[in-house]
Amino acid sequence: MANTETALKDAMTSIEGVIGVALVDYTSGMALGTLGGGKELDLNVAAAGNTDVVRAKVRTMELLGLKDEIEDILITLGTQYHLIRLLRGRGKNGLFLYLALDKSRANLAMARHQLRAIEADLEV
Amino acid sequence: MTAQVPSMLVRLAERRATGALLRDTGVLYLADGAVVHAESPAAPGIDVLLTAGGRLRPELWREAVDEAGAACRIAGYLLDHRRMSGGELEIRHLSALYDAAYFALAPDGGPSRFRHGAVHWFGRVRPVGVADVVRETRRRRRYLDDLWPHSHLDAAPPVRVRAAPLPPVTRRQQDVLDLADGRRTPGQIATRLGRPAFHTLVDIRRLAAAGHLETGVRTSDRSTATAPGTRTATAASAGSGPAATTSATARTAPGASLAPVLPPDLTGGAPDVAVLLRVRDALEARL
Questions:
Q1: What would the pLDDT profile of A30-69 be if each residue is shown by its tens digit?
Q2: pLDDT value at residue B13
Q3: Is B196 in Cβ contact with A48 (below 8 Å)?
Q4: How far is Cα A22 from Cα A98, in angstroms, rounded to an integer?
Q5: Nearest by CB to A91, which of B91, B136, B171?
Q6: 8 A C-beta contact, residue B229 and residue B282
Q7: CA B19 to each of CA A24, B7, B16, B49, B100: distance values in angstroms, whole numbers, following the listed order
Q8: What's the gap between Cα B7 and its chain centre?
Q9: A-contacting residues of B 185-224, CB under 8 Å?
Q10: Between 3.30.70.1400, 1.10.10.10, 3.30.450.30, 3.30.70.270, what CATH number should domain A4-121 receive?
Q11: Taking CA atoms, what residue in A is nearest to B137?
Q12: Between A4-14 and A108-121, two packed helices, what is the crossing angle to 10 degrees?
């Protein structure tokens, strides 16, 4: 029964190599909450920009006629991973968790697993 | 007055004021200088957003209002009685708060008054800083204008364009199109769908950019220009007599904010960067 702040704190502390995390509403592009990021990564800007990524993918799937749902999207940079996890379930439709990871310190499989657990924590 | 609203808010925040900032377009509730709630006649209320889609049964909502409304702690009641988790309540409440704040802080929202001591009946969930609300409201306004720069679409009842062929729409956009009967305002459509009004405005701007909804710019020949974006492109690139006529029509159309961007002299040599950017945006919106 975590509130959003606790869920973001969990992500920040439990996932190795996290640079920043945000909970984002992808229709409006608004970050409902952010943690970390700092000077190097403006999470509000990242939140708004990444809604276009999600939208483009959702749109492509509709055009392809794929009757499936996006679980997560991984973007690999030279030094960072950006992980977008779309949330499901009551009251969370249209939201995603956005996670920026330091590539040299992060364990991608672990991060995905923990992000799933944090999503479950946001559940009733 | 309009430019003073954010500075007035900042002063209230500095004084850690508690009360309600009242404007024609909505109300912002402050507690100890932070924003705790917002309401607007143009946006569905928290009751609509919470009961939308049967998430919270209307009778349970009424029970919470009856039991805790007078004490101004409905949010606390919903949590205490496990009607909703803390996370979900926060998300829905923040969504309602920012949604109404967008209208309450509108540049043309008229004069503001502050009623000291006023408290909202919903009760405190997660207060947000005045600076965050002002920044997000501005970002939303910019976001809509980037999609399709016609702000009169925020209030006017959307009108469908029934011309073929038009690009496919998403399910959520189809819901909006289905309710666009030329009478319902965007706020009424949002209430019917149980969605935040801003989300509906995003869909409306995208639909207008793609040619599914009228933008309010009259055209004599819809068969060659189904989308307003196409019209802009024609006017900018052709630079001939008929194109100039189109721009003149646009300028006289009520509420059309297209006019100032079109160069008065279309035969001029240098490309108008603003128009080119807009053409690009319109093309991208149609993707």
A1: 998 899 988 889 998 999 899 999 989 988 888 888 888 8
A2: 95
A3: no
A4: 5
A5: B91
A6: yes
A7: 29, 16, 10, 24, 16
A8: 22
A9: 196, 198-199, 202
A10: 3.30.450.30
A11: A30
A12: 160
- Beta-carbon separation of B92 and A48 below 8 A: no
How confident is residue A111, by pLDDT bands cut at 50, 70 and 90?
very high
pLDDT value of position B272: 66
Amino acid identity of A56?
A
Q: Which residues in chain B come in under a pLDDT of 70?
A: 1-4, 217-274, 287
B4, two tokens? 């003073």
Q: Which two tokens stand for residue B198?
A: 């801003």
Nearest-CA distance B24 → chain A (Å):
24
CB–CB contacts below 8 A, A to B: 70
CA angle B69, B197, B115 (to 5 degrees): 45
Nearest CA in chain B to A24: B91
**What ranges do the domains of chain B cover?**
4-141, 148-287
Identity of the amino acid at B284: E
Q: Alpha helix locations (H) across chain B?
A: 4-14, 46-51, 58-68, 74-80, 86-104, 130-147, 171-179, 186-193, 197-209, 228-238, 241-252, 273-285
Q: What long-range pairs does A60-69 form, CB within 8 A, spacing at least 24?
A: A62/B168, A62/B170, A62/B171, A63/B168
With a cut of 70, say whether residue A87 has pLDDT above it: yes
Read off the tokens for A114.
Answer: 């923990």
Give the chain B residue nearest A89 (alpha carbons). Answer: B88
Angle between helices B197-209 and B130-147 (to 10 degrees): 20
Q: Check CB contact under 8 Å for A91 and B199.
A: no
Tens digit of each residue's pLDDT (9 = 90 or more) over A67-83: 888 999 999 999 999 99
| ipTM at complex level | 0.79
| Inter-chain CB proximity A4 and B91 less than 8 Å | yes
Name the B residues in 78-97 with CB < 8 Å from any A CB: 84-88, 90-92, 94-95
Closest chain B CA to residue A1: B85
Q: Would you tell me the crossing angle of helices B86-104 and A4-14 to the nearest 10 degrees?
A: 110
CB contact under 8 A, B143 and A29: yes
CA of A39 vs chain B CAs: smallest distance (Å): 17
Q: What are the strands, taking DSSP E only, across chain A?
A: 18-25, 30-36, 72-76, 80-86, 95-102
